[in-house]
Amino acid sequence: MNLHNNEAGRKITEQLMDHRCRCHGVSGSCAVKTCWRSLPMFRQVGDALKAKYELSVPIAQRSKRQPRRKGKTKRRQPIKDDDLIYVHKSPNYCRPNEKKGILGTSGRGCNKTSSASDSCDLLCCGRGYNTQVLTYVSRCHCKFVWCCHVQCKTCETVLEKHTCK
């Protein structure tokens, strides 16, 4: 299964590769043309793999044979080279599971204003989040006073910390 998924990832990356060319010659003429293939942006590969992950195919585990689809289907469709496959469904990472070493997301820090993977909406699994207002006191605006000592002011910084319920 892992070998198949590794190969599928390589195929997806290869499909996304760019074909680029550059001309060399006097005053813009194309006397010599050099072409090459370049890797896609990392984000582009990640997005393509995420889309494939969402459509991944469950398989039954078999020994020393090609993987096959799990469950009975009327029409047999072969697994394509760029399909991602799995034997077991991914566990629910929202809730703790000691047997699998999953801590869950309760108490985890999150970003209230983000829409990325660190957002409270995603990380807290719909349970909401707590907001804690923290005040930090630190030395700031320090100056060297002649001779031989440093004089600083005291500054307060107020931060909001968000953690999943």
UniProtKB/TrEMBL annotation:
Subcellular location: Secreted, Extracellular space, Extracellular matrix
The keyword Transmembrane is assigned to this record: no
Sorted UniProt keywords: Developmental protein, Disulfide bond, Extracellular matrix, Lipoprotein, Secreted, Wnt signaling pathway
Biased composition (Basic residues): 62-77
GO biological process, one term: cell fate commitment
InterPro entries for the chain: Wnt, Wnt_C, Wnt_CS
GO terms, molecular function: cytokine activity; frizzled binding
Region listing for Disordered, in residue ranges: 60-79
GO cellular component, one term: extracellular space
Keyword Heme found: no
Its biological purpose: Ligand for members of the frizzled family of seven transmembrane receptors.
Family of this protein: Belongs to the Wnt family.
PANTHER family in the cross-refs: PROTEIN WNT-16 (PTHR12027:SF70), WNT RELATED (PTHR12027)
Name of the protein described by the UniProt record: Protein Wnt
